[in-house]
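WARN no homologs supplied; continuing
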Amino acid sequence: AYAVGMNIALWLVAGLLCVAFLASGGPKLVGGKARIAKNPQMAWAEDFSDIAVRGIGLAEVLGGLGLILPPVFQLWMPLPGYAALGLAGVMGGAIATHMRRKEPYLPALAIGGLSLFVFVGRIWLQPF
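OK structure emitted
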């Protein structure tokens, strides 16, 4: 029962993270700094080059897809755990940036924590 419940929890969290990172990373990747900086909540983009903003977007999109696609297609099964670890690293950078700019960082902290939950769950607790 524990294993089934844990697997369901990991799928739910990974699915939500996938949607969040695709929604966040897609505009960064496609629109770059010019598009992102127009949003007052994305003022942090002014501190980065266009290529850096697009790189962050690429990491978020690939990481989000890496949480879901490997198990769906029965590909390299450790990938979701490592994708989650990479996304936690991206969120670590987001936390540092927001703290430096004296901006709210709790959303990035929460998303980073959920990413670490998926990492630990998929690598150590509940591999598929």
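The helical segments are 2-36, 50-73, 79-100, 106-125.
OK
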